[in-house]
Amino acid sequence: MKAARPTAGALSLRVVAVAFLGVMVALPLAAVVGSVLTGPGGVGTALHALLSRTARAALWLTVWTAVVVALVNAVMGTLTAWVLSRYHFVGKAILNAAIDLPFAIPTLVTGLMLVVLYGPQQVIGHLLAAHGLRLLFAPAGIILSLLFVTFPFVVRAVEPVLMDIDVDQEEAAATLGSSPFRTFVQVVLPALRPAVLTATLLTFTRALGEFGAVVVVAGNIPRRTLTAPVYVFGAIESGEPAAASAMSLVLVAVSAGLILAVDRYTRSRARAMGVRV
Amino acid sequence: MRGLARGLFASVVLLSASACGVGCRAAKAEDTGDTLIVGAYSAPREAFEEAVIPAFRAAWRRQTGRDIVVRASYLGSGAQARAIAQGFEADVAVLALDSDVDKLVKAALVAPDWRARTGGAGLMARSLVVIAVRSGNPKGIADWADLGRPGVEVLTPNPRTSGGAMWNLLAVYGSAAGDVKAKSAAVARVLDNVIVMDKAARESLVSFERGIGDAAITYEQEVHVARRAGRHYDYVVPPATAVIDVPMATVDRYADAHGRRAVAEAFVAFLRSRQGQALLGGFGFRPATGPIDLPGDARFPAAGHPFTAADFGGWKKIAPGLFAPDTGAITRVLDATREDREALR
Amino acid sequence: MKPGRALLGGAVVIYVGILLIAPIGAIAWSALRSGPAAFLRALAGSGGGFALLLSIGLAALAVVVNTVFGVVVAWVLTRDEFRGRGLLNAAVDMPFAISPVIVGFALILLFGPQGWFGGLVRALHAKIVFAVPGMALATIFVSLPFVIREVGLVLAESGHDQEEAAYTLGATPFGAFWRVTLPNIRWGLLYGVLLTTARCLGEFGAVLVVSGGLAQVTETGTLFVFRSLEDRRDLGAYAMAMALAGMSILLIAGMEILKRRRAGANPRQGGALRVA
Question: Whole-model pTM?
Fold first, then answer.
């Protein structure tokens, strides 16, 4: 529908769409950016807060745990999608349903569940403590809660691609003597790569900003188990808007940048395949 | 399918309408007088909800023949002060530190002479910083130095959001002997053993009750409340500790805007009355005035030799001094790494 | 089954079991082990009923707003072409990227007393932050992308031919939309609505920052869970957690069933649920 000039109707729809997104998305983002520039003390105070050791440690903890989670999800998510699409066994429906659970569970409840399951008064917690291992109130707990929350992304992104893949290609490779593993690596993986890549990046972005699940499980000790979103929360609660603004801006910038990159990539690939975007 | 879609749409519209209705009704109820909104920190929750507020409502009915709804919000003291300053329209504020009340003075919400207006130096009650330990005190904790021993896991809330946490750290700092460096080292040793920093004092103690940690630095008053809730464990009053002042004030700007000044001041007066103080005592608060030691009262152990915030110049000196961002002695310990803290020793 | 496959399948099942199913089992057991009567009492007591209603109400409002505007945005993104459309497209994904606490922070920056619109809010005697309207805005923001993305998928796949045919037959644009487009997108719309609802019921970080924590006034289900833990009412916390999770699980299960029906109706479109 490449009109020479848009109709009045199309124009008004465009205006509504832009106005809605402008108010609901652009305005809050602008407020965060603006607060860094115009907040009390200006950019200097914000920068100073960001460079504090607590802030830097929080950012580092957030980033490395998100990276770990993204990588684990890339692997386990792909494997799970493979099992879902290629295997048939009793109880597969339960597995399939379980994968969507993180969408249904409030993040706070996720953290709560982990405390209930692995708390020191429980069997497992006791066992772990006896061996000197700490799951809760340690980075391991942060990673566990993030893994829960981000699990469905890679699985659900890879699944449709796997189902679309021409099974004939795989069978052809098999008849030519390729082992299942080689088939997987040389025939299947390249086809999956775009989906896995974008879903992994989205997992990373999601993990970067997670609050509810982490705040209950992490322990929140500055420089040890304090993540960036919990740092922002603490800054808001203790009346340090400059620190909150600065960290928020960093998180938003990184996430937004990744989203834009993923978006560009998806659209260029779709264009290459001739699909209208 | 059409019918289903219509039905779904209708029910969604109905639900959101009812949600708006509920929200609007709740808001309206506040505006038709004889409501009181209290912004409190986390500790007085049970005392207010179970005893003080019902008694106040009964007293108000006797006095004026009218019913009154009292709604209270309980957050960490710093968080509550921020919320009130940012537009949470409480008529009365009960906080953990008078510097949090001073934040409201700075925001032109509370009159500068609030202490005089509240009476009794502006206090609702007092308590002590104590150490909660497991039943029987298996780790033999008797003093702050024991919290610094290797292998002892400690809980305390985060001072950025919890006024209670600031009292806790002041107690550790103030009770240590020696100069600033020695006192900082004492705080450092304890902080090294902290494994969880919750947002507020109450959360911290609840974490302790879940089996986390060996000791929790807390208010004596909080332990009493826990006992009322059936959680039984011991607490230790260190030989030197801090007396906690619990300030309260009418939030003049909002109370006047709502036309509720009389109610607000009545509530404050009620808390300071003999009945109010007795009710608070049942929940572990020590009286707002008079001696802190209560030898005749079996509920309260001996207080030792506690110091007060006034001994350090009051919170108006302590907050920008010891807790100054970046430069305060206690802040520096909080921000330091383990390695830095080793150096501090 | 070949041993390699069994190993792989087993590994995945164990991973999902430990990661997802065990924690849910643990909390379900904690919530229900005192029996259904205690469960209901804990859920309804101390303002739980109100909290649940508020969560549902906020979700309903967000569904209405995000559906109406979401369909418009999806339409514009897939049927229209203009400069800056890429930016619009990226804007839709932003709510996924922004941490909920930052959402709450942004609302305070906008509508708090020192905010950009603080003066306006005060002049109108309106209450946005620390009141339900602010929480509504936060809920709408975090659940914004779902309807847009799901409907957009369907619109992109189905093409414009049917509508154009309707136009040539004399249908008005709105008529064509109502009679041609809407039936086409109904499954995508439904998925989007269900995902939106689940997301709203689970919202925590943003409403924690923006609400005043007043029971019976600005306390949602998730905030009730948080407060119950502090009040030493563990059963209340677990019960509400199960209630919120249970509602969303039912919705998602309904979605799965619909997905299967849809796959039966149109095999090409089955299973393609874009999730992020």
Answer: 0.86
